[in-house]
Design brief:
four-stranded mixed β-sheet, globular, alpha/beta, 3-hydroxyisobutyryl-CoA hydrolase activity, hydrolase
């Protein structure tokens, strides 16, 4: 994809409708040039810190299994290295931290019968767990698009620094998947029913709102990120508290959008009441009964999503709120394999990414046709194939 096309597409991105935006992002990922695998991720030591740079800016820093296989062992080595005091992970370029995993490769793997449909999710979730249990300060600079798998590389670490360019979303229900990478752990722990709302609708939070929502721990101007990174690497034998002090000082000095109201602030009471329900069907009924413009907008969005994804996601979040991260990731690996066995993921990718007709034919097409027995089968243990953490 040429730089001119890329530039035009990125300028248009904010004005497109949500479903079209997802299509553009996924198309961008699929058309990215294949780069030398050694250049796809940069792993370096600088001062007291180890720096991970996701280095596929033309692909919005989407990651593939070769990148996971480079990051994970190096992360484990740095955890044991007495000269490494913290980790900083960032994305190359100004557009994205990481827009997610390489969905196209997974779709093609299904057709060819490759193990990638198993290995990608297994190794991705093992990496998510390594981040969530990392013993040293882990700082994710989530400057730009941070979606799907990019959330998994950041949200489980100690610190997440958003900027005015940050765009957060978990848009998986639009492509027949569910908000994985530990979504079942962090989403139901957000304030009120915000996590449920984000999971079902794929709503995008931008800039300071990512911090207000509780996803980012700090908010800093994008132009200050280079200085922040330099200050972090120049710390002498820092503790987690020392790292927090640096991040806090940058956050406190940042006045950008300080007076801005949270984008969902006026709707939070409605979100908390409408999304408090015992089933996905009940949420739909709540939205219909409410009838306000806000409720009807969410209803319009949700009814485009995969019914199977919605019901899986509802149960995932209900169960995830009382599980630890390891048990959530084990559950989500089972769900990923159910989606790989099923219809909707591949149909969603076809409609959004391959044929781009924006008209996925979900099977089943309505929530009521998805039985409890089917859902139970999605959550069932895979026995010796279960994720081991």
């Amino acid at each position: 994809m040429g730089p001119l096309v890329t530039s035009v597409m990125q300028k248009c991105l904010p004005r497109l409708k949500p479903f079209n935006r997802l299509q553009i992002i996924l198309r961008h990922l699929s058309m990215a040039e294949t780069m030398n695998s050694s250049a796809e991720v940069l792993l370096e030591k600088r001062g007291c810190a180890a720096i991970i740079t996701l280095n596929r800016p033309k692909a919005l820093n989407a990651f593939n299994i070769s990148m996971i296989r480079q990051i994970y062992p190096q992360l484990k080595k740095w955890e044991q290295d007495p000269e490494t005091y913290l980790i900083v992970i960032k994305g190359a370029g100004e557009k994205a931290f990481c827009a997610g995993g390489d969905i196209r490769a997974i779709t093609e793997a299904k057709k060819s019968g490759s193990r990638l449909t198993k290995d990608f999710y297994r190794e991705e979730y093992i990496l998510n767990n390594a981040i969530g249990t990392f013993q040293k300060p882990y700082v994710a600079l989530i400057d730009g698009i941070t979606m799907g798998g990019g959330v998994g590389l950041s949200v489980h670490g100690h610190f997440r620094v958003a900027t005015e360019r940050t765009v957060f979303a978990m848009p998986e229900t639009a492509i027949g998947l569910f908000p994985d990478v530990g979504g079942g752990y962090f989403l139901p722990r957000l304030p009120g029913k915000l996590g449920y709302f984000l999971a079902f609708t794929g709503f995008r939070l931008k800039g300071r709102d990512v911090h207000t929502a509780g996803i980012a721990t700090h908010f800093v101007e994008a132009e200050k990120m280079v200085a922040l990174e330099k200050d972090l690497t120049e710390l002498i034998s820092p503790s987690k508290a020392n790292v927090a002090d640096i991040l806090d000082s940058y956050h406190k000095k940042c006045k950008l959008d300080q007076e801005k109201e949270f984008v969902l602030g006026e709707h939070m009471d409605k979100i908390n009441s409408l999304f408090s329900a015992n089933s996905m069907e009940e949420i739909i009924q709540n939205l219909k009964k409410d009838g306000s413009p806000f409720a009807l907008n969410q209803l319009k969005t949700i009814t485009k999503m995969s019914p199977t994804s919605l019901k899986i996601t509802f149960r995932q979040l209900k169960e995830g709120v009382s599980l630890n991260l390891q048990d959530v990731l084990t559950m989500e690996y089972r769900l990923s394999q159910a989606c790989m066995r099923g219809h909707d993921f591949f149909e969603g990718v076809r409609a959004v990414l391959i044929d781009r007709d924006q008209s996925p034919k979900w099977k089943p097409a309505v929530l009521e046709e998805i039985t409890d027995e089917f859902l139970d089968s999605c959550f069932k243990s895979l026995g010796s194939d279960d994720l081991k953490l």
